[in-house]
Amino acid sequence: CYFRNPCNVSFFIEKDAFLSLKNLKLLSLKANNITYVPTTLPSTLTELYLYNNAIAKIQKEDFNNLHQLQLLDLSGNCPRCYNVPFPCTPCENNSPLQIHPSAFDGLTELQVLRLHSNSLQHVP
């Protein structure tokens, strides 16, 4: 157990948790051990921070409705854990973050994409 998320407990997000937030621009879900990109995110988002979680796979439809998104931070999911100065949990079998080749296709306003510390083997 440590400061980010006590005892590595996964944080569950209800499917419609953010639907009523019609003016939401920035959403930070960093360091919550979530294992997937939440569904039905508000289409008004311009910044989405999902870093330092336990997301192993980015699906084709994960960002479909986020046409205004300008910044997406997915860093620190499936990290390489050698020589790190903090507690580190790699993905199962030390596999890299898997990103569907079309996952970012609809993000026409995207200006910043952060993918560091993900043990990527290729960028789609």
Automatic annotation (TrEMBL):
Keywords of this entry: Glycoprotein, Membrane, Receptor, Signal, Transmembrane, Transmembrane helix
Record keyword Membrane present: yes
The UniProt record lists the keyword Signal: yes
GO terms, molecular function: pattern recognition receptor activity
InterPro entries in the record: Leu-rich_rpt, LRR_dom_sf
Cellular compartment(s): Membrane
Alphabetical GO biological process terms: canonical NF-kappaB signal transduction; defense response to virus; positive regulation of interleukin-6 production; toll-like receptor 7 signaling pathway; toll-like receptor signaling pathway
Broad class of the protein's primary localization: membrane
GO CC annotations on file: plasma membrane
Protein's name in the database: Toll-like receptor 7
